[in-house]
Structure formats: C-alpha cells, structure tokens
C-alpha cells in the first residue's frame, strides 16, 4: 500500500470517528436537555437515520433557549410599574371566583395582569379588521406601535404603510416590528420607505449568516397594534391581501379583536418587551401607559408565551382551562399538532362528558402540517371529541370558548410550534356576554363545516393513513 493510500485511509477513519462522535454527542445533548420524551425521540430518529440533514436541522431548529431571559427582572419591573399600580387599585377582579385560578396562574407564571372595564369589538374578516385599524391609526395623536408576523408588499401592505407615513408626517411617533422570517420575501425597499419618513422599523431576530443558528426556529408570531396606549388589536390576522380576498378556492376566515381599556397595557408591555429585545431600548415612560377610564364591562388578560424561560405559559393555561371545563370547550385552529399534554387534556375532557369540538380547515395552506394534523383525528374522535372540517375556505382563526364564561382570541395555534417555539399573544376574556358572542361565531361557522364521522374517516385510503402516520413522527419538529 502506498503512502498516499495509507494517508487517505487514516483521513477516512479520522473523519468517520469525528463525524459519529459529533452525532452521538448531539444525541447525548438532546437527551440531557430533558425535553418532552416524544420530542426527544423525534430528534434522535432524525439524527440517527438522517445524520447529515439531521445535524443541520438540529443546529438551526433544535437547540433550546428556555434557560435564558428576554429581559432582566429589574427591567421588566420598571416596564410593568404603572400597569401594576393600576391593577392593584381595582377590586372587581376579585369578584370572579370561577376563573380566579386561571387568572392567578397567568399572573404568577406570565406576569399577565387582568383588568376590568374593557370594551371589545370582534372582527371575523380581514376587511373589517383593516378598516377598524386604519380608523384608529387616523385618530392617533402621540404614538403608534405595530407588530405583525407578516407584512406583504401588496395593495393591503402598501395601504397600511402609507397610512403610517401620513401620521408620521403629522408628528406621531411610530414603531414597526416585523418578523424577519415571516417577511423573508418582502423587498427591503418596502420598509426603507417608512424609515425615510422617520418611522422606526425593526425586524425580529434577523436571520443572517454567520449568525443563522437556531434563531430561525424562534419566530415572533404575534399580531399586535397599540394606538396612543389606549386602543389595541390582537388576533390571528396579518397584513396581506389574501386575508381580505382569500383564495380562488375559498375565503380566508380569521378572527381578530379590538380592545379599548386598561387591558391594552398588556399589549403595550408585550410590544415594548419585544422592542427592547431587538433594539436594546427600554421605554417605561408614563406616556405609553396613560390613564384610561372604564370603557365597558369586559374583564380581559393579555397573555404572552415565548421559547425563553421555564414555562410554556399559554399551553399550560389552556391545559388547565380544558381540564376545568364542565359543559363544553370549542376550538378553532388552522393546525392541529397538539403536544401530548393538550392531546390528553382534550381526550380526558371528552371522556368525562364535556362537549369538546375542534374546527379546522378541510383544505389547508401547508400540505405537510395538514397531513400531520389529520393523524390526530382518529384518537380524538374515539374519545368523543367532535371534529368539524371547514369547507367554505381556509380557516385561520384561533378562537376558543368554554362554558359561556371563558374565551380567548390570539395568535396561538394548537401545535408544537406555537406552544414551544413561537412568540405568541392571546387575549383571555372572563365575561359571559363575550363568551356567548364568540360561541355564536363558532356555531355560525359550524354551518359551513362537515362533521367528521369515525366510519367515514376509517374508509380513507391506506396511502393517506401511512402518509399521516409518517408525518406525525415529525410533528414535534414542524
């Protein structure tokens, strides 16, 4: 054997040793991270059977940041000082014993403050929401904070951009926050035009080499707007033409809510915390948390969740709500890839006689995620959960209502990504009339659905069953 052949053989062996050492070390790190066993096994399978691709995917998408903090405790205390003072002055919240445990939970783990005296308007289509948002923007006098996962450079995106530019020219201070991955396809000139007009624009966790890493996996999925610190918007709608026009095969059905009252403090706190994360500027001035007189009688609590910190706030709160349901729990979600905790809570509630209904689109915008969602339906129906498939178009709404008492609208989907990886925001309402109104919205949408029967579902092709089962193995990673 020649010297060159010996050298090549040594290099090959050395490469294999180093390569497999890296794979095994990565698997060891995944195990030591003490995640959900289902998610751990999913990563081990990917790393074992697709070592090269799996290693790349883990580097970009798999690493956990839950031991970190978004903002220091001292900084958050400064930010929440004024909302906390207003919160401590109210007595009405203590008069809600049925929901006090859930409110207390969100307060303890999330710092979410529940406020009474709010008025809300619910939007079930993009046109009405955009019209309401533009109207509030036109009334702005001091500052506007806008945050969406997606801003499209289309007629709707340009309409909002031009409205913001008009207000900036009037002297209103405007800050815009968009998600870097959600707006990957948007030409930077779209945002530069706002920058040239004095609007502060930031992208959330920019994804650029060489700092690509796992930031690509942690996206800001929140959809918020706060005008003068007094009126806020939160829900599932982004800024894009399809949210108004839909598709050629159907409408885009979504839910958003306008809030006026002290609950807007929660939306403002969420935005300013995210702004601090990307700009390192902490705004705590009283002008962002103005005095607000009671606007209505709705008790509302703005709850956020993120991949940072010890707890999965919204997922754990929803688990508590599902398990506490006595009569019914209705859910609208575009994607159904529940964590094992949520999956078991839904089945347990249904087995206990609670009327659990899940509404999801019959046709979705993401084939892979939809296939994974379908894999959960059989076991849910077996437990007594009713599955409704929306036929009129794409259902993107994230709405939940329970027992004519509790309801929520926000950006959180019923999937691993929303519960564990994304930055999300939901408004929780502890108010009978609001719950009844959202229940009616659900029942109205139900007329445009097909109720899935187990007998019909069992007749689908073996090819579909196999595809769904395979995709389900990857559901914790989708």
Automatic annotation (TrEMBL):
<feature type="active site">
    <location>
        <position position="398"/>
    </location>
</feature>
<feature type="active site">
    <location>
        <position position="403"/>
    </location>
</feature>
<dbReference type="Pfam" id="PF13091">
    <property type="entry name" value="PLDc_2"/>
</dbReference>
<protein>
    <recommendedName>
        <fullName>Cardiolipin synthase</fullName>
        <ecNumber>2.7.8.-</ecNumber>
    </recommendedName>
</protein>
<dbReference type="InterPro" id="IPR001736">
    <property type="entry name" value="PLipase_D/transphosphatidylase"/>
</dbReference>
<feature type="active site">
    <location>
        <position position="396"/>
    </location>
</feature>
<keyword id="KW-1208">Phospholipid metabolism</keyword>
<keyword id="KW-0677">Repeat</keyword>
<keyword id="KW-1133">Transmembrane helix</keyword>
<comment type="function">
    <text>Catalyzes the reversible phosphatidyl group transfer from one phosphatidylglycerol molecule to another to form cardiolipin (CL) (diphosphatidylglycerol) and glycerol.</text>
</comment>
<dbReference type="InterPro" id="IPR027379">
    <property type="entry name" value="CLS_N"/>
</dbReference>
<feature type="active site">
    <location>
        <position position="228"/>
    </location>
</feature>
<feature type="transmembrane region" description="Helical">
    <location>
        <begin position="12"/>
        <end position="31"/>
    </location>
</feature>
<keyword id="KW-0472">Membrane</keyword>
<keyword id="KW-0443">Lipid metabolism</keyword>
<keyword id="KW-0594">Phospholipid biosynthesis</keyword>
<dbReference type="InterPro" id="IPR030874">
    <property type="entry name" value="Cardiolipin_synth_Firmi"/>
</dbReference>
<keyword id="KW-0444">Lipid biosynthesis</keyword>
<feature type="active site">
    <location>
        <position position="223"/>
    </location>
</feature>
<keyword id="KW-0812">Transmembrane</keyword>
<dbReference type="GO" id="GO:0032049">
    <property type="term" value="P:cardiolipin biosynthetic process"/>
</dbReference>
<feature type="domain" description="PLD phosphodiesterase">
    <location>
        <begin position="216"/>
        <end position="243"/>
    </location>
</feature>
<feature type="domain" description="PLD phosphodiesterase">
    <location>
        <begin position="391"/>
        <end position="418"/>
    </location>
</feature>
<dbReference type="GO" id="GO:0005886">
    <property type="term" value="C:plasma membrane"/>
</dbReference>
<comment type="similarity">
    <text>Belongs to the phospholipase D family. Cardiolipin synthase subfamily.</text>
</comment>
<dbReference type="Pfam" id="PF13396">
    <property type="entry name" value="PLDc_N"/>
</dbReference>
<keyword id="KW-0808">Transferase</keyword>
<dbReference type="GO" id="GO:0008808">
    <property type="term" value="F:cardiolipin synthase activity"/>
</dbReference>
<dbReference type="InterPro" id="IPR025202">
    <property type="entry name" value="PLD-like_dom"/>
</dbReference>
<dbReference type="InterPro" id="IPR022924">
    <property type="entry name" value="Cardiolipin_synthase"/>
</dbReference>
<keyword id="KW-1003">Cell membrane</keyword>
<feature type="transmembrane region" description="Helical">
    <location>
        <begin position="43"/>
        <end position="61"/>
    </location>
</feature>
<dbReference type="GO" id="GO:0016787">
    <property type="term" value="F:hydrolase activity"/>
</dbReference>
<feature type="active site">
    <location>
        <position position="221"/>
    </location>
</feature>
<keyword id="KW-0378">Hydrolase</keyword>
């Amino acid at each position: 054997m020649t010297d060159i052949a010996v050298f090549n053989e040594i290099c090959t062996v050395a490469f294999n040793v180093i390569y497999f050492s890296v794979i095994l070390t990565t698997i060891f790190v995944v195990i030591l991270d003490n995640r959900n066993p289902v998610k751990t096994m999913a990563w081990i399978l990917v790393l074992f059977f697709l070592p090269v691709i799996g290693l790349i995917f883990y580097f970009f998408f798999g690493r956990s940041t839950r031991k970190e903090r978004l903002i220091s405790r001292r900084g958050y205390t400064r930010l929440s000082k004024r909302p906390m003072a207003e919160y401590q002055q109210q007595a009405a919240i203590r008069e809600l014993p049925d929901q006090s445990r859930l409110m207390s939970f969100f307060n303890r783990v999330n710092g979410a403050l529940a406020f009474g005296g709010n008025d809300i308007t619910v939007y079930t289509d993009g046109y009405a929401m955009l019209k309401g948002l533009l109207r509030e923007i036109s009334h702005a006098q001091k500052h506007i904070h806008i945050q969406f996962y997606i801003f499209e450079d289309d007629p709707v995106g340009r309409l909002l951009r031009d409205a913001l530019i008009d207000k900036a020219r009037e002297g209103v201070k405007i800050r815009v926050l968009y998600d870097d991955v959600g707006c990957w396809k948007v030409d930077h000139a779209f945002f530069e035009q706002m920058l040239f007009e004095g609007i502060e624009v930031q992208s959330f966790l920019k994804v650029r080499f060489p700092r690509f890493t796992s930031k690509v996996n942690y996206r800001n999925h929140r959809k918020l707007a706060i005008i003068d610190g007094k009126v806020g918007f939160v829900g599932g709608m982004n800024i894009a033409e399809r949210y108004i026009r839909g598709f050629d095969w159907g409408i885009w059905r979504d839910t958003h809510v306008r809030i006026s009252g002290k609950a807007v403090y929660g939306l403002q706190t969420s935005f300013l915390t995210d702004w601090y994360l990307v700009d390192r500027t902490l705004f705590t001035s009283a002008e962002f948390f103005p005095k607000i007189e009671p606007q209505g009688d709705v008790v509302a609590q703005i709850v956020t969740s993120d991949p940072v910190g010890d707890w999965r706030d919204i997922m754990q709160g929803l688990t508590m709500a599902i398990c506490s349901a006595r009569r019914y729990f209705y859910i609208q979600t575009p994607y159904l890839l529940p964590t094992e905790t949520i999956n078991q809570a839904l089945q347990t509630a249904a087995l206990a006689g609670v009327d659990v209904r899940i509404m999801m689109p019959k046709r979705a915008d993401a084939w892979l995620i939809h296939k994974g969602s379908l894999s959960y339906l059989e076991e849910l129906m077996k437990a007594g959960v009713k599955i409704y498939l929306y036929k009129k178009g794409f259902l993107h709404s994230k709405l939940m209502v329970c027992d004519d008492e509790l309801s929520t609208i926000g950006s959180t989907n019923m999937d691993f990504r929303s519960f564990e990886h994304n930055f999300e925001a939901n408004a929780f309402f502890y108010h009978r009339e609001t719950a009844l109104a959202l229940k009616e919205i659900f029942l109205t949408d139900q007329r445009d659905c097909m109720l899935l029967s187990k007998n019909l579902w069992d007749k689908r092709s073996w090819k579909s069953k196999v595809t769904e089962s395979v995709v389900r193995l990857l559901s914790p990673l989708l």
